[in-house]
């Protein structure tokens, strides 16, 4: 009795004959399920620009929230502090100049700055501090 089942890994079973053996499975020549290469799925997501354009074209009542008229309460989280030199998260503040800095390397740079430069950095974040 011969088995019609073929081995996919190249090993021969005792019940298979020599003429039924085709070697290891080749994925390039094996048949795959049908898939149409021209099939395109419908786009499900829209970007903000598309949403705003659609909302401008439609007329909504004033009590319906949209992306343009949404209002929310102020945040209860503390405001984040950023380094005045690099823009990274500021973990430290220089007590002498009140400049915020990220690490020791930036602190060494701050210590070499003159008063006009420190005033310019403070003015960039609207910190009206007059140094003596």
Report on this model:
It comes from Thamnidium elegans. The structure is a single chain. The chain has 132 residues and is mainly α. The protein has helices at residues 48-57, 104-111, 115-124; strands at 92-93, 100-101. A two-stranded antiparallel ribbon has the order 1-2. Strand 1 and strand 2 form a beta hairpin. The N and C termini lie far apart (104 Å). The model has no long low-confidence stretch (mean pLDDT 78).
Q: Characterize the main sheet.
A: 2 strands, antiparallel
The number of helices is 3
Helix amount, in percent? 10-25%
What's the order of the H and E elements? HEEHH
Strand content: under 5%
Radius of gyration: 35 Å
The pLDDT mean sits at: 78
Shape: flat
Quick structural overview:
The chain has helices at residues 48-57, 104-111, 115-124, and strands at residues 92-93, 100-101. By secondary structure, the chain is mostly helical.
Which properties best describe this structure?
132 residues, mainly alpha, two-stranded antiparallel sheet, 3 helices, 21% helix, 3% strand, flat
């Amino acid at each position: 009795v011969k088995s019609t089942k073929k081995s996919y890994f190249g090993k021969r079973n005792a019940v298979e004959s020599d003429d039924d053996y085709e070697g290891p499975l080749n994925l390039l020549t094996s048949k795959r399920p049908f898939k149409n290469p021209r099939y395109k799925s419908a786009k499900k997501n829209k970007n903000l620009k598309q949403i705003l354009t659609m909302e401008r074209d439609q007329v909504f009542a004033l009590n319906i929230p949209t992306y343009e008229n949404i209002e929310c309460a102020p945040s209860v989280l503390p405001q984040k502090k950023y380094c005045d030199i690099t823009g990274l998260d500021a973990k430290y503040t220089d007590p002498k100049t009140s400049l915020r800095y990220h690490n020791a390397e930036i602190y060494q740079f701050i210590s070499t700055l003159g008063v006009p430069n420190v005033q310019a950095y403070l003015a960039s974040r609207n910190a009206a501090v007059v140094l003596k």
